Amino acid sequence: VPPGVLALYQPGKINVVEFADYECPFCRLLHGRLKSLVAEYPGKVHFVRLNMPLQSHPSARDAARAGVCAELQHKGEEMADRLFASEDLSPQANRETARELGLDLAAFDRCVASPETDRTIDAQSKILRDSGFQGLPTTYVGGTLIVGAQAEEVFRDALARAERGEG
User: Fold this and answer.
1) For 24-41, how does the pLDDT look when each residue is reduced to its tens digit (9 = 90+)?
2) Residue 143 to residue 164: CA distance in whole angstroms
3) Contact 27, 57 (CB under 8 A)
4) How far is Cα 22 from Cα 24, in angstroms, rounded to an integer?
5) C-alpha to C-alpha distance for 140 and 117, rounded to whole angstroms
6) Is 49 in a helix, a strand, or coil?
């Protein structure tokens, strides 16, 4: 596990760190499946989603900004659910989602426009780039690296091993 990911881990928890792009079809495929698997370990999982918007996905950075700004208002998971499901990831659609989630829109707008938000996204992406980016989604489950929207069994096995403290 690279140092940048390891720094996010919490002792005594099953640590799951996912790098994703909201426009990536494989990230979208994994989202619901991973969420369901993590839910099977109530209170045991420390989950962190980091942004890795790809330049080949024109709306990915706008969606990442929305995700970061919703997280600051404690609605990151709700926003992620919506972003992964949405066909429209434009700034206008993301703002409408923020309104539907009850976010403070003035604060959301300031955050989305802030250069600090882009620096946050770039710093998150750098963690994966520095560790040898292979593809998305990239998920660390304890000591296991999983690249792509692998079969449920791959994630289930990694979660079980992490729960036992292996790796």
Assistant:
1) 999 999 999 999 999 999
2) 11
3) no
4) 6
5) 24
6) strand
